[in-house]
Amino acid sequence: MSSPTPKPVLIAGAGIASLLLAQSLRLAGIPFLIFERDTSFDFRAQGYRLRLSAEGLDAIESVLDADTWQRFWDACGKTGGTSVFTAYNAVTGEDTTEKSAVPQRGLALASRDGKVVGIARGDMRRIFAQGCEEQIQWRKDVTGYELTDDGVRAVFADGTKSVEGSLLVGGEGIRSQVAKQLSGGRIKVYDTGARGIHGQAPTTAFKDLGEGVFVIRDDTRPEGAFSVITNVRAGDMDNPSINFGWTMAGQPGVIRAPNDDYTIVGTQAAALAKSLTANWHPRFQPLFDHMNEEEAAFWKITCSSPSGVPEWPNQPRVTVLGDAAHAMTPAAGIGANTAVRDSALLGRLLREAGGFAPGVTEAYEREMRAYASEAVDISYTAATKQWSMKIDENTPTV
Predict the structure, then answer these.
(1) How far apart (Å, rounded) are the C-alpha atoms in residues 324 and 339?
(2) Phi/psi of residue 224, each to 5°?
(3) Is 398 exposed, middle or buried (0-12, 13-18, 19+ CB in 10 A)?
(4) Distances (CA, A) of 293 to 178, 249, 253, 271
């Protein structure tokens, strides 16, 4: 008589952390299913380019097979120059690196071979999804879970339920309903009040900057300070088909989306970015004059409790990773790196156990809670210095 088919690991969300975990399970021969509320990877804007730390790269390489790792590594941009941000006064064009207030704690930029390594979020998702496509079920919005006698089912927004799984992993981002149910509301994500705009422009718009990672800061507005960060990769500079991205972020009150709607994408976001930077030095104007207006997008800056990842009663068959467990501001650039560490850790524990086993989620959460709490603190501390934001008992949650 043949052995019964093992119950799959159920994964809520198809973000980078979920997909990297799926790769780990795929290579170990552990069955899994991914439930994603969107209709495809192209349904929404993918956000800003991600900088990868040494820890993040090590985690990714520990999971992927050699061929997939090589595809991933080849897709990464490698930026030379200094290993710190080059800072500029947005209006005068003055190099302010030596007196910049950009916090350095946790901000060692170079990660391999003296280079700053980065990749577009969308490219990362597509590479991590390779070989897992048939296990992704689209238009499946996970709103909670139901424990069974010997497993767990995901519950969807339409009232239907998934097949029975051995384990449910909530990786569906800052509004994770799995995290809310699992932690009994202990996992909170706060709206810091700080806001931003993502933008893109052709490589020719960045030629006056040269190679490196740059922070361009404007302290002249009465509402507060705001800045733009961008990564200029010399290897792509002469390719007119490539756009470089920039990310604008400001103190609470500086950047306001029409009708407070931060889902807006396109010309309205582009127009505000151009208005805010109208008096900037000519060296920086091409980033906005030549931007791809259709790709501009507003965004909110959120953060988990600065005190760290809270504790909750362990549920052996349910856990969370990535932003569902520990949302971070972009100030230190370590949110995605911490998320892939989660994937590598949980995947390794499941591989070693041959799939779900008692004690796996407890061991994972204990180790994750330590390094992720440190990362949240670094991220929050950097953000308070850059954008004068503060989280307290009166800060609204998302």
Answers:
(1) 9
(2) 140, 180
(3) exposed
(4) 35, 17, 23, 8
Instruction: Indicate the CATH number for domain 83-115+191-302.
Output: 3.30.9
Name the average pLDDT for the chain: 90
pLDDT, tens digit, for every residue of 162-195?
999 999 999 999 999 999 999 999 999 999 989 9
* pTM given for the model: 0.91
- Amino acid letter, residue 117: V
Between CA 84 and CA 82 the distance in angstroms is 5
Spatial separation of the C-alpha atoms in residues 118 and 53, rounded to whole Å: 9
Q: In what order do the strands lie in the sheet containing 226-232? A: 86-89, 212-218, 226-232, 243-250, 189-202, 297-304
**Residue 273: helix, strand or coil by DSSP?**
helix
Task: Answer whether residue 43 shows pLDDT above 70.
Answer: no
User: Going by C-beta distance under 8 Å and a sequence separation of 6 or more, which residues neighbour residue 180?
Assistant: 187
Domain boundaries along the sequence of the chain: 9-73+122-189+304-387, 83-115+191-302
State pLDDT tens for residues 367-397.
Answer: 999 999 999 999 999 888 888 888 887 888 8
| N-term to C-term CA, the chain | 51
Q: Is the pLDDT of residue 352 over 50?
A: yes
Quick one: pLDDT at residue 106? 41
CATH superfamily of 9-73+122-189+304-387: FAD/NAD(P)-binding domain (3.50.50.60)
Q: Facing residues of 106 across strands?
A: none
